[in-house]
Write a structure and sequence with these properties.
Structural class: alpha/beta
Distance between the termini: 7 Å
Shape: globular
Radius of gyration: 13 Å
Number of strands: 6
CATH architecture: 2-Layer Sandwich
Number of domains: 1
Order of helices and strands: EEEHEHEHEH
Helix content: 25-40%
Number of helices: 4
CATH topology: Transcription Regulator spoIIAA
Low-confidence stretches: 1-7
Mean pLDDT: 91
Largest sheet: 6 strands, mixed
Length: 133
């Protein structure tokens, strides 16, 4: 059983080298990675986003939380990358959760992926779910 505890002190947010329109950080918390992203997850940023996050998921830890609550836009390329990354985490016997905002939730629900992508309303809720994974 893997556990991810929520400790604010001592957590270092590592900047991710993404694109001009998509920025983010990565925090490693016990057996969980928390990615906080801002900007646009679209056809322009998707290849870099997928490559960088795929490498980080491969490095571990295997439980992944994507905080997309500050994302302004997701298109079909971005959704495709989220599905690929979720499958990668599941293949590694990890979990993959996405913290969303109304815009991201609407886009994901439009293609009926809300259960597969495990949408959450807050980082704290996602961290709680990871504790019992």
């Amino acid at each position: 059983m893997s556990v991810c505890f929520h400790h604010e002190e001592g957590i270092i947010a590592e900047p991710l080298n993404l694109t001009v329109s998509l920025r983010g950080t990565r925090e490693v918390r016990d057996n969980c990675q928390l990615f906080r992203l801002t900007g646009l997850l679209d056809a322009f940023s998707e290849p870099t986003f997928r490559k960088v996050l795929s490498n980080k998921i491969g490095e571990g830890p295997k439980h992944v939380i994507l905080d997309l609550s500050q994302i302004d836009f997701v298109d079909s390329s971005g959704l495709g990358a989220l599905v690929q990354l979720a499958k990668q985490a599941q293949t590694a016997e990890g979990t993959f959760q996405i913290v969303t905002n109304a815009r991201v939730t609407q886009t994901v629900k439009l293609v009926r992926l809300e259960k597969f992508l495990a949408l959450q309303t807050s980082v704290d809720k996602a961290l709680e779910n990871t504790k019992s994974a």
